[in-house]
Design brief:
365 residues, alpha/beta, Aspartate Aminotransferase, domain 2, seven-stranded mixed β-sheet, binds pyridoxal-5'-phosphate
Length: 365
Amino acid sequence: MPAKIHNFGGGPAKLPEEVYDIIKNELTNFGGTEISLLETSHRSQTYMRLNTDVQNVVRRLLDVPDNYKILFLAGGGTGQFAAVPLNLISRTGTADYVVTGDWSAKAAKEAKKYGNVNLVLPARDGYTNIPNQSEWKLDPNASYVYICTNETIHGVEFDFVPDTKGVPLVADMSSNIMSKKVDVSKYGVIYAGAQKNIGTAGVALVIVREDLLGHALPICPSILDWAPNAKADSILNTPPMFAIYVMGRVLEWVERNGGVQGMSEKAAKKASLVYDIIEKSNGFYYAPVAKSDRSKMNVPFRIGNPGNDALEKEFLKGAEALGLIQLKGHRSVGGIRASLYNAVTVAEVETLAKYMNDFQNKHSK
Ligand SMILES: *Cc1c(COP(=O)(O)O)cnc(C)c1O
């Protein structure tokens, strides 16, 4: 085995090493209580204080305005695929979905169970760009407009906030939250499953504007209804306490490391290390996504176009031998994907870049 592992997995993804040290230290004695958080009551002062602390760090990092609630809900990102229509579609019975990759496609499919879904973009082969807003067919009657700001599988990322003419904008930020500045006031709802960029599986962070609470469809399960969860301060039932705790420790680490601004500078540096090699490879490496829409968090690429499966297999094998792991592209698209979330260091990406260079030198004629 190589001495050191560099984890480029798409999710659950790498956590900062420093956070592991903190978790290890606190695991069996949380905050001086001499018991683990794992066996602490969710109604205890200890947990309620933690719950408030984690909300506060989210509020500070994203500068969340006072008229937004911060919720920690079970069910991950997929739970919110259902929660969004269940909470919001009642106003007009219809919603706009901007499908830019598999994750927004899944969300649109889920929403169809609860109302009319207007697909804002025409059906396309593959997802390699974000069409200009002038090509979008928004329905003025929509209850909300739904986007996924970073498509984890296809590596397509929004670099603008769409103008929805006052219709609430809902954004799945599961794979790029806390990697760049966000003007929360431009969104009705922001949510993120934690296991990509801010923690571990089992919890979704939901940031919702207060006026959007209290309109859930009567069939909405209480556990997915944002209003009672907000009223109960995310302690409606036993929450995924440990996942919320890990998220808090990760976010405190973000804060100690330059906050969202610091993360965004690091993200730009890491992404350009990989994309530059692809660009300068004379077609040896191929990134399918349009340059202006390339994700800084997930870099999918092929060796050759169309991809050479045998060479990609060799690339992945050689990478693993050096400790560069979980670089395989998502099973739905194949190829290679380097996920460069906040916890991945610049030095690790330099190691990957060097390997990409060496591999090309060995294999190009
Ligand atoms: C991973 C992911 C999801 C699904 O998250 P789960 O917690 O597994 O349900 C949703 N949206 C995006 C953008 C993702 O990357």
